[in-house]
Amino acid sequence: MKQKDDWQLTEMLGYEHGRGDPFAAAVRATRMAMVITDPSQPDNPIVFVNEAFQELTGYSLDECLGRNCRFLQGPDTNMEVVDQVRQCVKNGTDIAVDLLNYRKDGTTFWNALYLSPVKGRDGNIQFYFASQLDVSERVEAQQQLINQKEIVDHQVSRRTADLEAALEAQTMLLHEVDHRVKNNLSVIGSLIRLQIREADEPATRAALRTTMERVDALAAVHRRLYQANDVRYFDVSSFALNLVQDAISTGRDRQIFLKTSVQRADLPSQQAASVGLLLNEILLYLLSSRVGVHSMHLSSQHEDDGITIVLASESTLAMQPLEASAISKTLIKRLSTPLNARVDWSVTRTGHSASVYIPRSE
């Protein structure tokens, strides 16, 4: 059968106008490959292909007619997709899939196949109409993206694993260092307590006791770092709360009530020691009064630009103006400097307060 006579096949679809039928002309002339099969014949053979199909596949008209479309399949054709097509033919439904097909010369192309049943006036399926479109560039581009994504995902996973391993090793090292520092500070504290018991002069005992409290504060910082899940940050609010609570529990000669308004505030762990000692020194100053019943106020607030911690002490009796020791003044100044911290003092007739602002570290 010559290609110029293939318009006659459209008459089998029930069209009345033969060669003059615009449907037949469109099917012959379109650049999209098209196939018509006849399910009433054994193995649903091809009964029509247009020139675009022949150009796409390399098969001539005579090589296509009477054959099932499976002759376009090859070793790498996805048989699961083929089974989907067969099931749609069996059920009389349409389907659109991408299928790897083979040309006559053995080269492959990705076929965007659309298959649809054509029913007669009685509602029965008379033919199957299929269009094919070479989408190899699109599929290959998608596959390249998938391959690149897999490569990137693998590299990211490997890099993430390396970073996690490095972080774990660093964390273990930091925990070990903190553990040893804590033990050393514990030994130092024990030595100072021994000296306190053996000291005869009240002033010497008081000086040693203050030093011991500073060592205990530093040990508390390292203990909190050692117990933290993320050693990169130090929860200064929780530390301040524990610091005040510990100071109250050891104040045997005073009755102190604590009021808190604490918001979690994290600082980089490298600032922990300086912040801990700074807050401890301020607390020692505020608790230096020995008159009346005390109440302590602790508040903390974490903002975008920094952290503010307020420590205040009030008494039921009039408080005399307090004067920090020379060493306290020196420590507060030196500890504030590397933190770029600002300490604002407020004094009333019945109380003293200190507001500590620590800017966010860049």
Give the neighbour order of strands across the main sheet: 2-1-5-4-3
In CATH terms, what is the architecture of the largest domain?
2-Layer Sandwich
Number of strands: 12
Quote the distance from N terminus to C terminus.
82 Å
Domain module count: 3
- Helix fraction, binned, reads 40-55%
Choose one word for the global shape: rod-shaped
β-sheet strand percentage: 15-25%
Query: CATH homologous superfamily of the largest domain - what is it?
Result: PAS domain
Low-confidence stretches: 1-8, 11-18
Structural class: alpha+beta
Query: Which CATH C-level class of the largest domain is it?
Result: Alpha Beta
What is the helix tally?
Answer: 9
Gyration radius over CA? 43 Å
How much is the average pLDDT? Answer: 81
Textual characterization of the structure:
With 362 residues, this protein is of the alpha+beta class. It folds into three domains: 132 residues, Beta-Lactamase, CATH 3.30.450; 96 residues; 131 residues, Histidine kinase-like ATPase, C-terminal domain (Heat Shock Protein 90). It is built from nine helices and twelve strands. The strands form three sheets. It has a five-stranded antiparallel β-sheet. Strands 7-9-10-12-11 form a five-stranded mixed β-sheet, covered by helices on one side. β1 and β2 form a beta hairpin. α6 packs antiparallel against α8 and α7 packs parallel to α8. The radius of gyration is 43 Å and the shape is rod-shaped. The two termini are 82 Å apart. The N terminus is likely disordered.
